[in-house]
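Example record for the data management plan.
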Amino acid sequence: MIYPQPKQMTSKEGTFKLAIGNCDDLLGFCAKCKSCDKITFLKNSLLKKEEYILNVTNDAITVSSSTDEGCFRALTSLFVLWKTEGESIACTTVHDSPDFEKRGYMLDISRGRIPKVSTIKKLIDNLTLLKYNEFQLYIESFVFKYPLIPQVTEGFDCLTPEDIAEIEKYCNERFIDLVPNQNCLGHMGSWLERDEYKHLAVGAGVENTGTINPLLEESNRLVENIFDSLLPYFKSDYVNVGLDEAYGLGRYELEDVCKQKGKDVFFMEYLNSINERVGKKHGKKLMFWADMIINYPDSFNYIPKDAIALEWGYELIQSQTMAEHCMALRDKGVEFYVCPSCNTHFSFTGRSDVTTFNLRTAGEVGKKYGAKGYLVTDWACGYEGHPHFPVWSLFPGALGGQYAWNVGGEQTGEAFKPEFIYGAKEFTDVFSFGGKKVSELLYRISNYYLLEPERVHLGSMCGLILAFPLETKGYFDFFDLTVCGDDFYFDNVINYVESILKEVLNIDFDNRQKREIIINGKMVILSAKLCKLRMHMEITDTEAEEIVSLIDWLDLEYRELWLETNFEKGVELFCENIKNRKNEVMQLPRI
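Corresponding structural encoding:
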């Protein structure tokens, strides 16, 4: 097996025995291959940057490429073959190259978990095998020790400049570009909650819109200090400056100026200002989320030169509108990425069918309209405390790696491309679960939400509502538990998840990963039980004891798993939510 599945792979009779000893590390494997007298490396200037030809015969292996990066991709494929087939590799010829120049993975580290460097390196290892060549750590809150603003991270540990330098070196050794990612217009709520910055918010003194006020020079100085603290530690030619979901535009202090100029014009002026004060100052080209201007095609003419628009959409309907948006960006000559999602946020486990559709559509649309890149986004959910563990992102990350490298045949309207889904499961089983068949169970459990009485945006009913008081019956306009169903639906959810968790428990694989699966499955079960309580607001003593016991177990297990791989900061977010639910359950009337 080679995964991501290559463009051209021709099998031949015979095998070649690649006897180089035990090796679990890709870089170590590459070094052994380069010193192996049975492997020949050829330079072929006709091949593109990452294009390669791998030829395995009965008595030798030949690797052809035009660059070191192309050679590395070839050896990555050989490593995957070697790990899945053993020393005796079937004779084959592979001629392969990527569909997207940039193949990125973005991890949200700002709304809950701040992973330790060792945790990040483990993720990078997996991304390397999947031939990703870009990695972003999404930042909007206090997860980095800003040298020019030390007070915001005083009193707790998080990533340091030295950590970033270590991560970048690790990425560069694996031909991955570590791109800085710092939001600086919307999603500034954490900054604007601090006493010294509250007056910089749009809506200061009334509400925190999460949007910084660009009309204030002090706001601009803060943004510059943030980037001046961050960017010196990144060698990438790019910086992602965010700018998405700036909900304060057109409101409060910005109402008059946006009426006068238009929201789109005001936004473009700010984007160009950031390009001057941040991009050019540090020699970076900008990336920015395109949602604020996607409905204003005339604004595309004012995008800074070499800037990249990031077209994102994670739901089924958003995936469908992506084609129209990509066409508009292409026609205006704007470079852009397509940005699907792991869809693990707001559900505890992800939603497999939505994820596979989203990843596939982004790949097909992006390739059709000439996207420069494909960026898989792995988001957290702030108010819930980032409760889902990394195990749920393994399959989406693998499938995203496939579509970033090889989209496959043109969509006919009928093909779900199951071979890619099966391949992602097999890859994940081999390289994450020690060869045990676990991915299929994760795929199935992640579709539990289909048993709920309502489909909701970006998550599940169980995933969205756990953080709210029991008296809350719905989530915005998405659903109302008083009218959408009865116990039958949530009993089905509980029985379904419990049955799959029993199967997981019977498989012998990495204990930590097993615990991650079990705890997130138990979160679904807890929330389903609480959904039933929200409808009735009464409980038996036995039911109350069961829920309280489950919450106490979740609290202890969650903390222990969190602290093994993440900084301590943020662990209380989820734990406080379930403790609040525990107290409410204990006060409910008994029947």
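Summary line stored alongside the record: Residues 99 and 406 are 6 Å apart (CA to CA).
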